[in-house]
Every structure is written in C-alpha cells, then in structure tokens.
Amino acid sequence: MNFKHESCGYDYVDDLKPPYASGCRTCALRAMASSPGYASSNRLGLLTPAYRKALEATFPGEDVRAVHAQVKTTSERASNGKVALL
Length: 86
Ligand SMILES: [Zn+2]
Hints:
Number of helices: 4
Bound molecules: zinc ion
Order of helices and strands: EEHHHH
C-alpha cells in the first residue's frame, strides 16, 4: 500500500524505515514507531518515561496519549503490510 505523506510529499511504501523527512508529521510518526521506546512501552503496556519524553519533544504541545495512539496506528499499518519492523 502506498500513501502520500502529509507534508513531505514523498510517496513511500507503508513501512517504518528511513528516510524520514524532517518537518513531516507522518515521517515523525514512522520514526517514533520504530524506536526502542515505543517497543518497550508497547510491550509493557504503559508509556515509559523516556518514551513519553521523546513524544513530548517530537510533538510539543500535543496530548501524549493521542500521539501515542497515532504511533500505534502507524506501527500496525506497517505490520499489516507484512513489513519487518526492525
Ligand atoms: Zn513524510
């Protein structure tokens, strides 16, 4: 499945691998979904302090749980595309 990124304008296959365009929210979500912080938060079922901090730094002023939900959707979309996550 291909999708067009909201702000970088690149077409990428649905996956979490670089490149990540700076300033593109979709790319930022992809980068976050491939981060160790997301992996451990997902495994533990809670937002770890480091992951929470990363979300706050990357998406300033936004609701951390709402952004996490978007990261999760991004990760699941990549999984559904049968793309290796790491
Ligand atoms: Zn992008």
